[in-house]
Amino acid sequence: MVKTSRGDFVQKLIKIDRPILRIPTLAIHLDRQENFSFSKETQLFPIAGLVAAELNRQGKTEESAERTNVGGKESDSTFQPLETLAERHHPIIVELVATEAGVTPSDVVDFEMILYDTQKSCIGGLNNELIFSPRLDNQEMSFCATMGLINSLEASESLEKESSIRLISLFDHEEIGSNTAQGADSNLLPAVLRRLSVLPSEGDPFESSTAFEQTLSSSFLISADMAHSVNPNYAGNYEAKHRPEMNKGTVIKINANARYATNSPGIVLLQEIAREQNVPLQLFVVSNVSPCGSTIGPMLSAKLGTRTLDLGNPQLSMHSIRETGGVYDVEYGIRLFESFFEHYSEMEGRIFVD
């Protein structure tokens, strides 16, 4: 948040695209613990630099810096409800934020900082068939859904016979429960769908008073979150007949305890949609002796009462700082979403469930 010359406060989004912080682990020679463990309170502080380097930048010595700090804070006749940013954060951090925001440090009123791996993604493998990247989960499926929607609208006549609204929702905070204003457990998607459902259209069969509920009953939600590829080093952790492989197609995720929202009618629908674009699919059921993660699929299915299916492209090392995925699965995912947007209205009317 920055203060303008008019006295207003404006939000700015910035990205410092270089590594400025590092969290160092203790060398194994100094602590030979069998299981890697650490204190989140005392052992995860990032290192931003060295004191001597910063003093050299300011043209000071350690002795002169100590003399400057003697006597405590400088007096300021202006009342400050909170400590200033320079008192709460290192001045060079505030300077970096101000520079990226295009303002002076004194204009920066407050900021939120999120750390991320700055190492660029790359293509690897003997045949360039793999993607090594941070945050594949879940930026890959977000990308596939976005590109699939765009591609489905390339033809000028793409919406001439369309009876449905093509929509994607990209939410924050799935890994911490989704219970935020930007998360899937918020009122965002229901509110958007409610407003869209009452828009007037020619030959609209829905009564306005129940249009929202009828829209939900005729809609279909694909919960797209990355899936687990079989790890050849830990093949025993997977169910014998459900070991998805990278570059062999998008994975439909199934769980009897409703950790995923997939059911048979949804599988049939997606299979027919995939057939239109020759997109291979795989099935995944977690091993009976392994815990099962979940997605926003069951949450939104319960909130909306809409038919839902969980799927995702297979990957290795999920939730690590460097994940691994398949190059060809990205294309498969895009084509699958493109086919879904183009053929859902037709396919939906051909699947009957009591």
Overall description:
- Helices cover 31% and strands 12% of the residues.
- The chain has 354 residues and is an alpha/beta fold.
- The strands form three sheets. Strands 3-4-11-10-6 form a five-stranded mixed sheet.
Name the descriptors.
354 residues, alpha/beta, 5-stranded mixed sheet, 4-stranded mixed sheet
The assigned structural class equals: alpha/beta
Give the biggest beta sheet.
5 strands, mixed
Between the first and last Cα atoms, what is the distance in angstroms?
A: 54 Å
- The poorly predicted ranges are none
Percent helix range: 25-40%
Compact summary:
31% of the residues lie in helices and 12% in strands. It has helices at residues 51-58, 62-69, 85-88, 91-101, 136-151, 188-197, 211-218, 264-277, 296-304, 327-348, and strands at residues 2-3, 9-10, 122-124, 130-133, 220-224, 227-228, 250-254, 281-285, 307-312, 314-316, 323-326.
Which helices and strands, and how do they pair?
Blueprint: E1 2-3, E2 9-10, H1 51-58, H2 62-69, H3 85-88, H4 91-101, E3 122-124, E4 130-133, H5 136-151, H6 188-197, H7 211-218, E5 220-224, E6 227-228, E7 250-254, H8 264-277, E8 281-285, H9 296-304, E9 307-312, E10 314-316, E11 323-326, H10 327-348
Parallel strand pairs: 5-9, 6-10, 7-8
Antiparallel strand pairs: 1-2, 3-4, 4-11, 7-9, 10-11
Helix pairs in contact: 5-10, 6-7, 8-10
